[in-house]
Amino acid sequence: MTSYSFPNACKRWLIAASVLLAASAAGAGILEDDEARKAILDLRQKVESFRKDFDQKLLDAAKQHSDEISQLRRSLLELQNQLEASNAELAKLRGQDEQLRREFSDLQRQHLEISKSLDERLRKVEPIKVSIDGLEFVADTAEKKGFEAALAVFRKGDFAESQTAFNEFLTRYAQSGYVPAAIFWLGNAQFIGKDYKGALQSFRKLIVQAPTYQRMPEAQLAMANCQLELKDTKGARKTLEHILEQHPRSEAADAAKERLARLK
Is residue 245 part of a domain? Predict the structure, then answer.
C-alpha cells in the first residue's frame, strides 16, 4: 500500500521554491532585463507545474487514505455484524439448552411417575406367598383380598352376607389355595344361620377335597353337631368316633368324648 507524507512533501516543495527564487535573484543582476524576465517566467512555470503536481499527489494520497479508512470502517462494521450474529446464535443455543434441560427433567419426572405407577400395578397383580391354617401357596392380590373380605364379613357377625361372599369366592377362585378355609368358614356361617343341611354338605365337601386340612377336627365336630340338629344320632355318633380315631389328641377329641357320653 502506497502512502504519501504531507509534511515531508511540503518541505521538499519549499526547498525547491527557495532554490529557484535565489537563482532568479542572482541571475537578475547578470542577465539583461528580457532574459531576466524570461528566466523568471520559466521559473514560475516550473514552480506552478511543481505545485500542481504536488497538489495532485496530495489529492491522490488523501483519496487513497479515505478509501482505506472507508474499507476499514466496512470491515469493522462487517465484523460487528458477525459478532452480533454470533451473540444471537449463542443466545439461541443457550435457550435451546435450557429448553432441553427442562424437557429432560420433565421426562425424568414422567419416567419416575410411570415406574411408580407400574410398580403399584404389578404389586396388585403380582402373586404373593400366603400361609393359612398350615397351608402355604401362591395367590394374587385380588384373590387374597377377596377371601379376607369374606372372612371380615363373617367376623363382623353378618353370617348371611358372609355365606354369599364365600360362595362367590369359591365360584371365582375354584382352584385357589384358600378353598379349604373358604369351605370351612362357609360351613360355620351356615351352621350359625341354622342351615344345617347346607353346613353338613359344606363339611362333607371339605373332607373330600382337603382331608389333611389343619382344621379338620373342628370341621368334623361341627359336622356331628349338624347331624345332631338334624336328629341323625347314628350319623353323629359315627362322626364323633372318627374324630377320636383320627385326631385323638385334638381339642375336638375331648369335645367328642363328652358328646358320645351324652349319647349313651
Answer: yes
